[in-house]
Amino acid sequence: MFFYHQVDGGQEHKVATESEFSPNTLKLFTEAGNNYFVEQYIRLGAFVAGANLRHHDEASGMREVSELSMAASGNCSSEL
After folding, report:
1. Phi and psi (nearest 5°) for 32?
2. pLDDT tens for the chain, residues 1 to 80
């Protein structure tokens, strides 16, 4: 499953995720007309797994996304 989000070029953008023990951020400087792919993955720890982010080049990102379905965007909240 993947999300698609259009952003302005010529700017730095921050992608963030949070796991039980730490927030994780990835900064990307985007250029207009290019596609950027960020993967959220599970990082195994000594006692608990956590989330992390990594940037993929366009070729590998397109290959991965072509096998997935697009997710519906929503609003996340830490208040349950």
Report:
1. -60, 140
2. 788 889 999 999 999 887 777 788 999 999 999 999 999 888 887 777 788 899 999 999 989 888 888 887 777 665 54
